[in-house]
Specification:
Shape: globular
Number of strands: 5
Radius of gyration: 16 Å
Order of helices and strands: HEHHEEEEHH
Structural class: alpha+beta
Largest sheet: 3 strands, antiparallel
Strand content: 15-25%
Length: 152
């Protein structure tokens, strides 16, 4: 996916981006991992990928994550219709230390933005709440992913 960007990134840019994503995934394997609550739009799961094996590997990975204690995974189904506009993917970062304020991380085409103004963070928190309410429950998400893997 990273390599398919326009204009085409150099090999070193792709390798660096992949390495960063792998490093970010390893955070969930720590002895004391953070809690991750993610909402994935069904359209992202229905979009054709390079090959069937890649698709199956990705869905199996999501199922494994969904069954772990530190991850709450929800799928926003197509039937939800129009939902709150987010402008694209974002992450709402909350920290265990009460002295650290919440931050919103927005990854963009040419970099990332961190939003820390209270009004901005609150708006993204409202959107996240709306998305989770309109999404399948974590349990129903696991069923959805298993059905998707089975070709249903």
């Amino acid at each position: 996916m990273i390599a398919s960007a326009t204009p085409a990134p150099t090999r070193s840019v792709v390798e660096r981006a992949v390495a960063l994503r792998i490093q970010r995934q390893r955070i969930l394997a720590r002895s004391r991992p953070p809690h991750l609550w993610a909402v994935i739009d069904e359209t992202a799961l229905r979009r054709p990928v390079l090959d069937e094996e890649t698709f199956r590997t990705q869905v199996k990975h999501l199922l494994a994550l969904a069954s772990s204690q530190q991850v709450a995974l929800q799928v926003l189904p197509l039937r939800a219709g129009v939902v709150a506009p987010t402008g694209g993917p974002f992450a709402l970062l909350r920290f265990a230390d009460p002295d650290l304020a919440d931050v919103v991380y927005v990854e963009q085409l040419l970099g990332a933005v961190y939003l820390d103004r209270v009004d901005q963070v609150e708006r993204y928190a409202e959107v996240m709440n709306q998305l989770t309410v309109q999404s399948l429950t974590p349990q129903d998400t696991e069923i959805f992913l298993a059905d998707l893997l089975a070709g249903r």
